[in-house]
Amino acid sequence: GDSTSAGRAGGAALTAEPAALSPSATFGGTTATGGSPSGGVVALTPDVTGRLDDAIKQVMNRASLPGVIVGYTTPAGGYQRAFGAADKVAGTPMTPDLYTRIGSVTKTLTTSAVLRLADQGRLGLDDPVSKYVPNVPGGDGITLRQLGDMRSGLYNYTDDPDFQQALFSDPNRSFTPDQLLAYAFRHASNFAPDSKFEYSNTNAILLGQVVEKVGGQPLGDFLRTQVFAPAGLNRTVFPTDATIPDPHAHGYTNQTPNGSTQDATTWNPSWGWAAGAAISGLADLQSWSKVLATGMPLFNQATQTERLKFKDTGSPDVAYGFGLFNTHGWIGHNGSLPGYETVAVYLPAAQASLVVLVNTDTLYQGSEPSTLLAKAITQIVSPGNVYTLPATMAPSSTSTSAPPSPSASASVSGSSPASASPTAGGSAPAPTPGTTGGMTPSASLYLS
């Protein structure tokens, strides 16, 4: 996710040993043996699955990750594993059925709700946001499309020092969307609309408000009936409080005022709202990654074509569309918030989906653990399409081992209630270098 790391201090002080592999690799209807699957992906032979096991465990050991869940599926077979601990205190193992907080992958849900309304003729992507939400600075000149494309220029509220102080000082605090926007709107815009890309959580909050206005109901209700149900997502939740369904993985973060590692499982995600508050799990995210890349069954093809108009982000490795990115062919989003990281992407050429869930957001040498894992996995299974998120796009890249101070800028990019200076959001492209992504190392809280 894009997070700028804010209290990412101290490096990962997590010392969980990767536990034994949970379930064994599962192969779909046809066993993958030899042969070359379509789309340039490698067949899942026993040798390849062994290499995947080793690569994942190597990243876990190096980055001291408590637990990891990986699901990779293709028409020719799949790989599903859970490693390590879901609860470091109780020693409960990670299993593929656990709920986790998905941070900025929430942005794919919010933008899909907007597209659903567009598909129904209830709004237009080129409508100004001022048509639906009052008092947005320059709102007459900012379109819904520019919000979804991360090209509005609006200041990212998670970068605001007072917001970070409020979040850091009380992770259980409940924020309203209007309170979040107030932190953003007291700052001037960073650039004219559509002049460039800059990841901003503010954009997603506004789109959530648009959905509520046009849909006529709370965002969570609209998502449940108009996005989750038709997409077949039975274990995805948009919470209105800090609870998380059972069974769930505990999440661990060092985005704390003194840089110590804490259990952030029940930190209130209201600060991320439409940008990062959702909860999901492996099976739903595997299905969802395909929906994101294909549009089926949520939208007609014309609407999906608009979603996939990927634009330059300033990085040769990542382009950004309407609430999703494309990194070397893999389409989807990532997410990071205190305690959890997520990758949910789909490679259309191979009809392959990849989901990575990690129960910590603590950086390893400036890199997000979910990015390290997705890169290591795709180097093996899709060497021609390697998942690559540049550090400047992932805000957490700025974190160092210095403890952050609450006033430091935290990067919040999805819905991470801890420190919050969002530089990147849940998606790879975080802020442009020099903006949110380049925060002082000791200070950024992030939500990606």
Description:
The protein is α+β, with helices and mostly antiparallel strands and about 450 residues long. The chain has one domain: Beta-lactamase. Helix content is about 25%, strand content about 15%. It has eleven helices and 13 strands. The protein has a nine-stranded antiparallel beta sheet with strand order 3-2-1-13-12-11-10-9-8, with helices on both faces. Strand 8 and strand 9 form a beta hairpin. The longest helix is centred in the first third of the chain and has 18 residues. About 65% of the residues are buried.
CATH topology, anyone? Beta-lactamase
The CATH superfamily name is DD-peptidase/beta-lactamase superfamily
Unreliable residue stretches: 1-36, 394-446
Into which percent range does the helicity of residues fall? 25-40%
Q: Please outline the major beta sheet.
A: 9 strands, antiparallel
Quick rundown:
The chain is of the alpha+beta class and 448 residues long. It contains eleven helices and 13 strands. The strands form three sheets. The chain has a nine-stranded antiparallel sheet with strand order 3-2-1-13-12-11-10-9-8, sandwiched between helices. A two-stranded antiparallel ribbon has the order 4-7.
